[in-house]
Automatic annotation (TrEMBL):
Gene3D superfamilies: alpha/beta hydrolase. InterPro entries: AB_hydrolase_1, AB_hydrolase_fold, Sec-Metab_Biosynth_Hydrolase. It comes from Amycolatopsis echigonensis. GO terms for molecular function: catalytic activity. This is Pimeloyl-ACP methyl ester carboxylesterase. The lineage of its organism: Bacteria, Bacillati, Actinomycetota, Actinomycetes, Pseudonocardiales. Pfam families: Abhydrolase_6 (PF12697). Coiled coil: none annotated. Residues 5-222 form the AB hydrolase-1 domain.
Length: 229
């Protein structure tokens, strides 16, 4: 099928993280929209993405990276246009689960020790420390590019990582999951657990970081194209 592919970034990233995929998906004939994820909370972010989905005619393949997986799981519930969900190093929460809970379910994650908080009038925003961003988030991305990513990262509201998810769309749709085996944000064991539970078609990328969408866009795009067939 020819679909509109909607790409939803996660925390500490932005829509430009998908540039490599956008180029390849457009070359394959698909319309592509990289959504600006507000990163304020699962319900609020899902409502924003849902509004975008409602504006699209025809079939949709919905893709989420990292925390964006929690967002697409909520945004797609009952939506008639969404034909498949693709998770790239992403969360596939069940009802009542939070991203923070799932990330801590298995050993291997080191994100917490790299975070810094910026106080807001209500709550706080979280950033990955710029001096630790390369090794934590994007170890397989060239250092010069990782510096730019660190400087331009979008913060996430601290409360968003503890917000319980609603009933997920992945229970009713075809699911695809790409797991980078050197992910330090979401342990690969946690990603495997979630993918198996969702009966996802899984691709593992050896030695890839959490920023696999930046470091290996051809592999990520191929999985998205598989979901769009």
């Amino acid at each position: 099928m020819t679909a509109t592919v909607v790409l939803v970034h996660g925390a500490f990233a932005d829509s430009s993280s998908w540039n490599g995929e956008i180029e390849r998906l457009r070359a394959a004939g698909h319309r592509v929209i990289a959504a600006a994820n507000p990163l304020r909370g699962v319900a609020e972010d899902a409502a924003s993405v849902r509004s975008l989905l409602d504006s699209i005619e025809g079939p949709i393949v919905l893709v989420g990276h990292s925390y964006g997986g929690s967002v697409i799981s909520a945004a797609a519930v009952g939506h008639p246009g969404v034909r498949a969900l693709v998770y790239i190093a992403g969360f596939l929460p069940d009802e009542g689960e939070s991203a923070g809970e799932l990330a801590g379910k298995f050993p291997g994650g080191t994100l917490g020790e790299t975070l810094e908080q910026v106080a807001l009038s209500s709550g706080a925003d979280l950033y990955v420390r710029q001096d630790l961003f390369h090794q934590q988030f994007a170890a397989d991305v060239p250092a010069a590019q990782a510096v730019l990513m660190a400087a331009g990262q979008r913060p996430i509201a601290a409360a968003a990582l503890d917000e319980a998810s609603p009933a997920p769309a992945w229970k009713d749709l075809p699911v695809y999951s790409l797991i980078p085996t050197a992910d330090k944000n979401i342990p690969p064991a946690a990603q495997r657990f979630m993918a198996e539970r969702a009966e996802a078609e899984v691709v593992e990328v050896a030695d890839a970081s959490h920023a696999v969408l930046v470091s290996q866009p051809e592999v990520v795009a191929e999985l998205i194209l598989r979901a769009a067939r």
